[in-house]
Every structure is written in structure tokens, then in C-alpha cells.
Amino acid sequence: MAAGTTDPAWKKRLQRKPLPDKSGRVLKLLKQFELSQWRTPDEIAGTQFKQLSRLLAHAQSTIPHYAATTAHIVPADATALRAGRWLDIPVLKRATVNRLGNELLSKEIPPAHGSLDPIYTSGTTGLPVRVVRTRHALDYWSAFTTRDHIWHNRDIDGTLAAIRSSEKNFALYPKGTHHIAWGSKDGVFKTGPSLSLNVSTAIPDMAEWIVRQQPDYILTMPNIIKRLAPWCQENGVTFEGLKEISVIGEMCGDLLRQLSQEAWSVPLHDVYSSREVGYIALQCPINNHYHVQSEGLYLEILDEEDLPCTPGQSGRVVATTLRNFAMPLIRYEIGDHAIMGEPCNCGRGLPVIKSILGREQDVLVLPDGKQSWTLLGSPDVRDFMNMAPIIQYQFAHVADTKIEVRLIVKRPVLPAEEAEIIAWVQKKFAWPFDVVFAYPENLPLTKAGKFKDFVVET
Ligand SMILES: [Zn+2]
Questions:
Q1: CA of 350 to the centre of ligand 1 (A)
Q2: What is the pLDDT of residue 123?
């Protein structure tokens, strides 16, 4: 495939001369990205290790924690780092970032990296962390947002509907809120308007709002699509003019992509990011797997012995933020598990993540101590959904050998249907679990508006 983007509208936008303001800085990065994505994996790793060497030297000399934990490493030797020395740097746990707080802040932040922007993230593990980013790091954030639009050939003159805010009393049905642009008003390129609706909106109201607003694009979380798509299909509701759906914040599998095609005949793309480290990987323009955003972070997937996983093997996601010199996160263990992929046939040299398995606490520990991924994003979940009139479900590991199946249903489930579900659960989770049923009125979202298909309550 030829280098660069193929969409003429995007080609024209990228040909603009960068100005010294935010949009100019981001445009400059995008021009670099247009080239860097096609470099070979070897070239990309070479560039990354030069940056890692600079980052480590900066961290050692201005942050006492890294001076102590990496005293045995000579940062200037990028070749030695790449040859394996990098693996001698201890992995940074979320609990350590939580405990150290501002001690991870550099004493000498390069003035050219601009103003500082702190964020707090509560995370799903209940360990809040505070990360301080520079303007320079946020320019990369903006550039990756735009790269996602370029990769998926979005018409940014269109209307974007975001159903992602869980903020109390914000963007409530029936109005939602209206904004003049997709992102902040000083974005990189002029865009069409955007709209917001709170995630707590009831599904029929949400569908009505979308029909009324006629957006070109929808940005939301997987749990919304899982409920909205079947509802629309059953009630014959289509979204005229809708071109694509993007999802963030929760696990996305092929099941979700199928639901989107069946309900609205539109593609669905996933974005893999975290608040602390920013964009991790974007979905490939032509495949359902992900490309690591190597210009912004160095990503490792490590096995149980902290060694790099080979393609096909699953392990813990460990990221190093390459651009944030205010509070660098070096070998930070995000808490996710993923599978490394083979190089991509699209021609991009950016490393491939085959799939993202979930957070640490989503692992089902079987009674024999073995760990198992519940993989509730895979298409075989449809078999289960078809066994009874299920609207929404949650599986809870409530005791060593017991799974509680929580169901919201259209009518009472028959004993024969429950029996079928029990057999499915035992097969899916690979253990003869004692399966019990609960029929709650609703299944609540987390404070951040997320929903978990599987919870551990042992
Ligand atoms: Zn690709």
C-alpha cells in the first residue's frame, strides 16, 4: 500500500502550512505521523529507544524515585537498552504511583514543553492516581485523536454524537447539549458540531434522541451499544445518515462489531486508551486489531516472568510514556491484559495488539487456581442471549464454585431455559460451576458510567 492517507479531503487538510499555535504544532506532528507509521518495526523501535534513553536520563537526574530504582542502568546507551538492559528496569505498579504522588514529578520540567495539566483517575481498582501532563504531551494526544479520524476516513464536517458523560445532571434527555465543534474549539481542524447525551438515559429515550439529532458519528461505550442495538432491531428503529460508531472505555469484541452491522449497517471501531497514559492503540483502518501508538508510548506485553510475550501469547500491558517529561511513567503496569499480534498486512510498521482481554480483576480464577478469561465480547455470547428473552446480563463469581447469573428479562425465564443457560455457563467458563439465577430490576453502571459483564464478588 502506498504511504500516506488516501482520502483527498484529509490530504488537503494535511497540506496546510503549520502555524506556531496549538493547531500548527499538532499539524506538524500529524505530518510526521503520516511518515512514521510506514517505517519498519526495526526503525520504529530504534527511534523509540533513542527517546527512551533521553527520557530515562531526564528521569534519573530530576526524579529521586527513578534515580534510586534505575541506578544500575546507564541511560545514554540506547543500544544496550534495546538489547535487553531495558528489561532490568523495575515495573511500576499503580499502587506505587498512588503512594508516591507528587514525588514522581520532575524537578526540572523542560520549559519548552509548556503548561502543566494534572488529571485524577480513580481507576477500576479503587486506587486513585494523579498524573501531571505537559502541553507537549497533550499535543500528541490531540494528534492521535485526529489520526483516528484520518485512519477511518471520517468526514469531520459532519455531526458527532457523544454518549459518554456520566456527570450528574449533565446532558440530560430530552435535550442533551450542543457544542460548536467535536473537541475543544481551538482544535486542529474546523469540524462540524457535536452533541452530548448522558449515559444514564434510558435506551428507548436514547434511540429517540439519536433519531431526532441524526448524527453522522456516534462515540460511546460498549455497554450502550450492547443494549441499544438489540432494542433498535426489535423496534425497527434505524439511524438515518449514521456512518460509523466508535467505542471507548470498556472491552470491545467482535460481537459488538456484529451488533452494529446488524442493527444499523455501520462499522464499529474501538479505541484503546487510558487516562494516565493517553492513547495506547487505535484500530487498524482495514483490520479489527490495533496498532500501538508508538510515537507517544513504548508498549510491552509481559509474561508471568516479566519477559516480552511473543505473537499470540497473552500478558500484562506495560507502558512507558515517551513525551511527558513532567511526570514520566516508566514501565507502568496499566492493569490490562492483551495479546501481541503479528505484523499487519496494511503495511504499517506500528506494532500490533491482536486483542485486549480485560482488566486484572476481570480474570475468573477457577477452583483449581487456574486463571481464565471470560471473553464475554466474543460472538458465542449470542447463543446465550438467544436461550431466553434476555435484555441485559451480568455474571458474578460469588463463591469458589458458584456463579450467579443476573438477568434482566422481558418475561419470566422458564426452567428449561435456565437449564440450557446453566450448561452454557459451565461450558463457557470451563468448570462445572454451581449456577444460580437472580432477576434484579436493573444492573447499575459504575460511577464512570461503565458496565461490567463479569464481576468477582468472592
Ligand atoms: Zn494495520
A1: 8
A2: 64
